[in-house]
Amino acid sequence: MKNRIFWGALAAFTLAAASPVAAGGQKQGTGDDAKVIKFASCNLKAYEDSTKVLAEEVAKLGYKLEYVFLADNTQLNEAVERGEYFANYHQHTPYMNEFNREHKAHLAAAFKVFTDRAGLYTAKDYRTLNDLPEGARIVIPADAGNNFRAFTILIEAGLLSLKSGINEESASQADIVYNPKNFKFIEVDYTMLARTLEDADAGFLYATVAYDSGIVPSRILAPEPERFQAADIIAVREENLNSEKTRILKQAFYSDAVKKSLRDSFGGKEVLIPVW
User: Fold this and answer.
1) What pLDDT, on the 0 to 100 scale, is given for residue 27?
2) Cα(229)–Cα(82) distance, integer angstroms
């Protein structure tokens, strides 16, 4: 989470308030800890729905999933880094890698779960990227884990170039060397992307964000290049990559029931693409 990241309209829990309590009001750490997997998920509908089904699938394997829903990406990662939770569910690998670099953390991708395809969308009457006017305002994510992704869409269309030899995944506006239509990039918090689309000519959105914001698929100007469609992951600390709990989580997640819950969260539409 992408790693994801989240909408201000959703209630944000502080980690201090959320840590002691799992879903259903059960206290964390009760029972046989060897059979308890503490799990922190983001508080968006698709994540919440699939986490609840995941708990049922984990129970079938003889374990108990104790979970909380949090709104803040940093809190979700810090909770696992500190060992308060075994795993989290909200991000893609580029976002996690950036968090590790910035916080000297030790998170690792345990396994991939789904792809949330991104693209440049519009609330105006434009049909393609080439319809964007001179000096068009384009809103893009401010966080380093997602910032570059809007650039790749424009690069693919021949409307932008970066410095030669630069790693696209760490690119910023300072690395732009070719911008023939003089696009203006407005960096905003990820949670504000959908809200600011009305005031811009185009904006970067994930399919889930577009769907939840009522933006119809036809408003997409161009999809993200397939090579940058980073799948969301379940993240754990590095030393837990090959643990029994990680194996249980993967087996439970890769079930027909979880796959169905992901699709049901979007009215049966294939907004999220499961990796299994």
Assistant:
1) 35
2) 29
Strand 64-70 to 220-223 pairing:
unpaired
What is the residue-wise DSSP string for 180-199? TT--EEEEE-GGGHHHHGGG
Summarised one tens digit per residue, pLDDT across range 191-212 is 789 999 999 999 999 888 888 8
Tokens standing for 40? Answer: 């922190």
Q: What is the C-alpha to C-alpha distance for residues 181 and 174, in angstroms, rounded to an integer? A: 17
Q: Are 41 and 73 in contact (CB under 8 A)?
A: no
Which tens digit of pLDDT belongs to each residue from 45-67?
A: 899 999 999 999 999 999 999 99
Residue with tokens 């009215």: 267
Give, for 186, the enclosing helix (H) or strand (E).
strand 184-188
Model pLDDT, residue 30: 34
Cβ atoms within 10 Å, residue 154? 24
Predicted confidence at residue 63, as pLDDT, reads 98
- Beta-strand ranges (E) seen in 94-168 are 107-116, 118-121, 137-141, 161-162
What letters, b where the CB count within 10 A reaches 16 and e where it falls short, cover 69-100? bbbbbebbbbbbbeebbbbbbbbbbbbbbbbb
CA 223, CA 156: separation in Å to the nearest integer?
10
Cβ neighbours, 10 Å, residue 173: 14
Question: Structural domains in the chain?
Answer: 15-115+230-274 (3.40.190.10), 118-228 (3.40.190.10)
How remote is the C-alpha of 268 from its chain's centroid?
A: 20
DSSP H or E run through 187: strand 184-188
Number of Cβ within a 10 Å radius of residue 1: 31
What pTM was computed for the model?
0.73
DSSP state of 214: T
